[in-house]
Amino acid sequence: MMIPVVIAEDEKQIRDGIVKIIPWHDLGFEVKGAVSNGTEALDLLRTIGDESLLITDIRMPKMDGISLLKAVRKEELPVKVLIISGYDDFAYAREVIKYGGADYLIKPVSEEELEKALGDIKKAFESENEKKLLPSLRLPQDKTTVMDDTFMHTIESYVYKNYQHAISIADVSNLVNLSENYFSHLFKQLSGETFTHYLNKVRISKSCRLLEKGNLKIYEIAEQVGFTNYKYFNSIFKKITGQSPTKYKSAIREI
Question: What is the topology classification, in CATH, of domain 140-254?
Answer without folding.
Answer: Arc Repressor Mutant, subunit A (1.10.10)
